[in-house]
Amino acid sequence: MSSALITDLYELTMAQSLVEHNKTGRAVFSVTVRSLPQERNFLVSCGLESVIHEVLAFRFSHANIAYLQSQERFSESFLDWLCAFRFTGDIIAVPEGRIVFENEPLVRIEGSLPEIQILETIVLNLIHHQTTIASKTARMTITAGSIPLIDFGLRRAHGTDGGVLASRAACIAGCTGTSNLEAGQRFKIPISGTMAHSYILVFNSEKEAFRSYIKTFPKDPVLLIDTYDTLTGAETAAKLAQEGLPVSGVRIDSGDISSIVPAVRNILDSYGLQHIKIIVSGGVDEHDIRHWSREGIPIDAYGVGTKMLTSSDIPYLDMTYKLVEYENIPRYKTSTGKVSIPGRRDIYRHYTGGIMDYDEIAATGIDCKGEKLNEYIVKEGIQITPSPSFEEIRERFRQDANRLPPGIRSLETKRYQINIR
Fold first, then answer.
1. Which domain holds residue 102?
2. Which terminus of the chain is more solvent-facing, meaning fewer CB atoms within 10 Å of its CB: N or C?
3. pLDDT tens digit sequence for 206-262
């Protein structure tokens, strides 16, 4: 059961006034990103599953009502209205994992005006956070190509709940696994991890630490080799592997990766250990990945944390939840720099040779020949489209990523064509 107090005060003050003035007709709100920041050529839609769960469970508990009553702001009749609150509207949305662009309606919510006004905060919170993380991750995974990325970011994420959802978003956008056990259990994501420097430090030697860990976890152990001297650590790991101990990989978390990794690869190969993989972690982002890839640095996997799960370069998007129609009349803002697109809209995608060419944002009901991205998810408060599996969402992303034009896939700023009808 969600807490209906995960909202802003003005959502409820507006709702009371709307109810009192009989402004309860059918309304349409649209979630869009006004414009993309320079560092993003595209976004990855994410968070819809959370929105469905939270909106359909949105209830005001007795404790919630008692708290609101104690604030002496709300009428008893409005509090009674809140007690009976249930979402009875519709949700039309772009499925999770699809690549989207600015001004496109990611989610459209229709229903009685005060009912769907109250949902603004929680809908934006869930869609914004997860779309931001998925979009950052996509830049990294696309840049990495066939080299896998593993999510190591929970400890730097913004809160525990946010961290779990961020790990989910990261793995939708291409990460192959996570160190986050809660995300692993909840979303059936493969879990992965190595060891910390503290583990190495409590033993009398690095060699003793490696032996002990391998004895405890003999199946595919990955050894952290940069606690003291990275090249010495690589030699120690190689000698243990040559003795017949199972070593599947080594992890490097510091230093000049461009020079250290080739040296470590040479050490491992000199012992005939070409099968041992090198994992690099420690402040990795898409620009590092591109740089090392261009240099041909022999990295087999990345452990990515802070910069991915906080979307460090772009921690927020200009995402809005705007009224676009009320009682069948289109509504829109004309504020400078914040003009909104009126009316119900759908996204139609056009391809040339299997590659995305341009999108149309068309008024609902217009006959367009492209691929329609928006789907009916909830009708009159009931989910009518089953939730896809986590792997199905990941596959959606993989397919869309493969259909991106080369310029939009790159880290250079490029803008995709959007036509508004």
1. 2-133+314-420
2. N
3. 999 999 999 999 999 999 999 999 999 999 999 999 999 999 999 999 999 999 999
Q: Where are the alpha helices (DSSP H) in 217-285?
A: 230-242, 257-270
In a domain, 152, yes or no: no
How does pLDDT run across 338-392, given as a tens digit for each residue?
778 899 999 999 999 999 999 999 999 888 999 999 999 999 999 999 999 999 9
Same domain membership, residue 401 and residue 288: no
Pairing of strands 345-352, 371-372: antiparallel
DSSP state of 358: E
DSSP 295-321: HT----EEEE-HHHHTTSS-----EEE
- Same domain (yes/no): 324, 255: no
Q: What does the alpha-carbon distance between residue 411 and residue 408 come to, in Å, rounded to a whole number? A: 8
Mean pLDDT for 130-137 is: 98
Instruction: Find the CATH number of the domain harbouring 248.
Output: 3.20.20.70
Which backbone phi and psi does 189 adopt, to 5 degrees? Answer: -90, 135
pTM above 0.85, yes or no: yes
The residue length of the chain stands at: 421
Q: Would 306 be classed as within a structural domain? A: no
Largest CA distance in the chain: 81
Same domain, yes or no: 118 and 37: yes
278 found inside a domain? yes
345: domain CATH number is 3.20.140.10
Alpha-carbon gap, residue 15 to 7, rounded angstroms: 12
- The span from the CA of 176 to the CA of 126, in Å, is 23
The helix (H) or strand (E) run that includes residue 371 is strand 371-372
Beta bridge partners of 264: none
Q: Which of 245, 276, 299 is the last residue of a domain?
A: 299
Which tokens sit at 48?
Answer: 């819809």
Check whether residue 363 and residue 241 sit in a common domain. Answer: no
Count how many domains the chain has: 2
Alpha carbons 322 and 404: distance in angstroms, whole number: 28
Say yes or no: 353 and 330 in one domain. Answer: yes
Whether 186 is covered by a domain: the verdict is no
Q: Phi and psi for 220 in degrees, rounded to 5?
A: 55, 50
Q: Which run of H or of E encompasses 204? A: none
What letters, b where the CB count within 10 A reaches 16 and e where it falls short, cover 312-339? eeeeebebbbbbbbeeeeeeeeeeeeee
